[in-house]
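A common beginner's mistake is to predict each chain separately and then try to dock the pieces by hand. The better habit, illustrated here, is to supply every component at once so that their relative placement is modeled jointly.
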Amino acid sequence: MGDGASALGPVAQHYLLEARQIQALSFAVHIPLVCFGIALPAMVVCVEWLHVRTGDPLYRVLARRWTRIMAALFAVGVITGTILSFEMGLLWPNFTATFGGVFGLGFAIEGFSFFIEAIFIGIYVYGWNRLSPRAHLLSALPIVVAGFAGSLMVVSVNAWMQHPSGFRLVHGHTVDVDPWKALFDNSFLWHELIHMYVAGYIVTGFLLAAPYAIGRLRGRWGRYERTALAIPLSIAALASPVQLLVGDWAARVVASAQPIKLAAIEGLAKTTKGASEHLLGWYSHGRIDFGIAIPKLLSLLAFHNPNATVVGLDTVAPDLRPPVNVVRVSFQLMVGIGTLLVLLAAVYLWIRVRRGRLPTSALFYWCAAAAGPLSVVALICGWTVTEVGRQPWVVYHVMLTSQAVTGAHGIPVGYGTLVAVYLLVGIGVVWCLRRLALVPLESLVAQGERG
Amino acid sequence: MHLYDAPAVFVLVGAALYVVLGGADFGAALWQLLAGGGERGERLREHAHRSMAPVWEANHVWLIFILTITWTAYPVAFGSIASTLAVPLFIAAVGIIFRGATYALRSAEPTGRQRRLIDTGFSISSIIAPFALGAAIGAIAARRVPVGNAAGALFSSWLNPIAVLVGVLAVAFGGYLAAVYLAADAVRSGDRDLEDAFRARALIAGVIAGGVAAAGLIVLASDAHHLYRRLVEGPGLPALLLSVVAGVATLWLVWARRFREARWCAALAVAAVIAGWGLAQQPLILPRLTLARAAAGHDTLVAVIVVVLGGAIILLPSLALLFRLALTGRLDDSQDASSRVPSATERALGSPGGLFARAAAACLIAGFGLLTIADAAWAHAVGVTCLFGFVITGYVAIAPHRIAGDSRPAPPDQRWAP
Ligand code: HDD
Ligand code: HEM
Ligand code: HEM
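With all components supplied together, the output reads:
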């Protein structure tokens, strides 16, 4: 599509790999926080609504407590997102200079949804005492909507990078740009959006339930704890099977739009008719060692035809292939964890339907506690598949990552600083959440009854 | 005005609002640092914290707005600026991280040493961030950012008299605005002592900010004569005059304790400086790069204008609501507010019954068929809708609050002591 030129011209950057790692690190910090921005408002609203309906102060205490968590995590989400915005220029100025006119609109619209989110979070968090219950409840709805709209916008940019359209590149300058078509008329957008959005609910649900599951193992199991566990756990349990189906859909879109990424995901060295699927194992020298092969399954899953031909890595030059094991192991981890989450969800739902109660075995609560961190691992792995699987392209088949990078010196210094900063912030957030959890319930109940 | 000017106007308006609103949030932190010790210092800090808590996140988004509009409408300029000014921008970013993080930490209501540590980190990062952002603007004004990927000098581009002065000016403006706003907020809370404290600070900061601005003009005259001329003789002059008049008027209003008017007037004085810079800077954004040449294609510009104007329809009423609530004290987190929550009538929630469970199962099966087996795009759309239907009906069927109410406590033998 392009002729290899770019708006700012070529540079030599010795630290491309470090630049990519900075980007990856910053995302790995932002994305889990964002999940709370996507899903927590909806959960808090559910609980507050229960309070308005029943007048039971327990729900108010719970909603207020989660509101504090929401406020703290939102603030950290905002700043980590701001870093990402800076990095679009600090790390990848040539990418932004060349294609800002094509994809930038998505971020511009996203800016407005951030406005709405930030404004109503301010009103919701600080309006608990002074607004009427109904007005307060209503003030949360824009947050929920903006969480979805924001994800749509930012994912539309990512989907465009994966499957670019809506422009032509002439001597490094984009012409005939149609930003609406580029962002929204894109077959790659929808599975990414839904998969990410559902992931937000899964991660938030399991993470929020985890401390109460641990509490139960330690013997804290009043009605408050049971409610606080059951609500997020139910949501995550319902979302898990959905995620499996959406993920399978994602894989089929990848198979048709980015065959080389699929080949990396599966470790398929040669184009094969009726390709088999390998579970586990390690890719080396063009084959999967120690894996379990299931004949023809890959062709069936990817193309709904057991004899379909699946494109292999050999169709492109070695320097245009992504690093296979990073992509493949990440994928296997995500799918493995996703499957375990579905099993956990099935147990939970089964006990609910058959026995009409919460599970009683300690094992279940061990698993529920582990599900939170594991779902974050699946989240990061999913994005690693998507982003590393796109390599070496930043804009798929249009611009190489090495063309996008900054020519500025000092990337390692920035890298080291950022690692230290994120470590400090991480320690701070953990400290803050622990402290919030230690606020005695009685003091919140007292506030709840007074105001 | 041309099509390619419109996004620049948006960016300038965004910049003015960011300085006037977000800048004041940074400035509030400056006063926290200078509040002094003891119980009174603690009260000043608490007042500054409470005033900005509900609004700082919304105010911060103006920065995101500026960045995204710039890289969409003038991508080459953005790439050149961000790569040459990588150092001040990175410093600003780190400052912003610490500021936001320490803000979040404060919500955990720390005490004693931890509290002081957090407050100090908060204040220092709140000085660094506006300084670095200001220095970046100063570097652009001083024409030290050529077009290209990191084509300018990494340090001398922004470590020069003009850039440093603009950085200092950014900090001073923030402190000045914050003092005026905080005095006005103190009136609302009816605390005369706080009011006096911030009134005095507003007067001092006003004089300092005015002095720094005047010094800036002198430095411009020697180091960036082009900009100076366009500011004092060319298109920037009206804005410059407006700023001086509004600045003096603010001092008088603060002196007379007419804080409500002072708030607007102070904001006007600062916004006029930004407008003046914008007017004096154009038509060149960067050396040899005019707005016209920097602008993205026609369709992109139209799209940006549509989005900003359309977005404004939603944004402005929302902002108005936020500030009305904040300025009338309805977001003050006071604990003694009267309760308007219905008393515990314990209305039982209706039983969900098996109907929802069956609907959920049907949705899941339909979703599987349409999303996983079928191949058409419309089928996928309906399938995804069914799956969302599964989650919602499933949630109603589970009725988690009911099972939580019904389930019994854990038998003692399953308790696990650490
Ligand atoms: C809680 C998190 C989570 C879970 C349990 C799963 N995924 Fe996932 N996956 C993600 C979270 C995620 C994500 C949010 O991280 C990604 C990155 C990009 C995207 O759209 O979603 C992703 C990407 C992603 C991609 C790449 C899409 C692309 O490149 O555009 C595929 C093929 C799958 N997933 C497939 C699956 C399958 C078959 C799963 C079966 C269980 C699964 N995922 C579970
Ligand atoms: C899949 C990817 C992403 C999703 C789903 C996402 C979603 C969100 C959400 C929901 C928020 C609200 C804050 C919160 O809840 O904590 C947020 C904040 C933010 N994100 Fe992301 N984001 C993603 C990636 C990015 C990228 C790539 C950028 C920039 C290049 C970015 C920039 C920002 C910024 C600037 C904020 C702060 C907004 C504010 O001031 O309120 N995000 N993001
Ligand atoms: C949704 C919007 C997103 C945008 C616009 C975006 C953009 C980018 C860009 C510009 C790069 C650098 C160029 C490159 O290495 O190809 C990159 C790399 C990367 N991103 Fe994303 N990204 C997004 C979402 C995410 C998320 C949510 C993650 C989560 C972890 C992520 C993980 C990574 C990783 C791991 C790399 C480095 C790839 C490598 O080193 O091989 N990305 N992304």
